[in-house]
Amino acid sequence: MRSLIVLARLLDYPTRALQQAAPEMTAVIKEETRLSPLRRETLVGWIRRIAQGDLLDLQAEYVALFDKGRSTSLLLFEHVHGESRDRGQAMVDLLAQYREAGFELDARELPDYLPLFLEFLSTREEAEIAGQLGEIAHILARLTARLEEREADQALATATLLALIGAEDEITEHQDKVRQEKRDDTPAALDAVWEEEAVRFSATSDQDCAVQSAAGQRRAQQRQNEREQVSPVRMMDAASDRCH
């Protein structure tokens, strides 16, 4: 399902290659009959804003949204396990699932990183896609409500994932709770996090899952993209390249 690759790209760190891939992404979304005409039009509008936007501004907005605080994290297991040791085992299990399916994981990426997970799903059958998205629907709904509260375009992507499985109504169940949450991206909240003792995974988990911060991964990816000119076609076919 190529639309999942587009959604993965839209949720990832903005790059020049992403802007250049706008025409191809637009074409994929326009052909996605599983989505309503209004939702397709809304997504195309977002893609257009990315293509026409200032790249540095897009990157700064992305970092402010996803690298400050945990409530909008794109690391799925962080919403379930936080930084506990259980998250390490969950990532090991997910990594094993990827490998069993022949999906090659880049060492820079965590297994539970949502864009990566969507790339994996894009290689699976529709029934499995629906089942896997259904298992994380509660995470997607809460994340969507939080992104909507911050008026972030990325809420369009997570809401679309729920729409694909007919679970978009779940968002409303989380909106009131989200409005009552204290922001975790304020200077005071961030200072409090830094004062907490860091939880360490086991050495085996660190090695197998390449545990590192999402911000660090994106910085590494940005440097890599600057060294290599990634074509829009290769960008859209990344999932196919991973799966052997």
From TrEMBL:
Q: Which organism is it from?
A: Kushneria pakistanensis
Q: Where is this region: Disordered?
A: 203-244
Keyword field contains Kinase: no
Name the UniProt record assigns to this protein? Nitrate reductase molybdenum cofactor assembly chaperone
Q: Which InterPro entries match?
A: DMSO/NO3_reduct_chaperone, NO3_reductase_chaperone_NarJ, TorD-like_sf
Question: Which keywords does this chain's UniProt record carry?
Answer: Nitrate assimilation
Q: Which residues lie in Low complexity bias regions?
A: 210-223
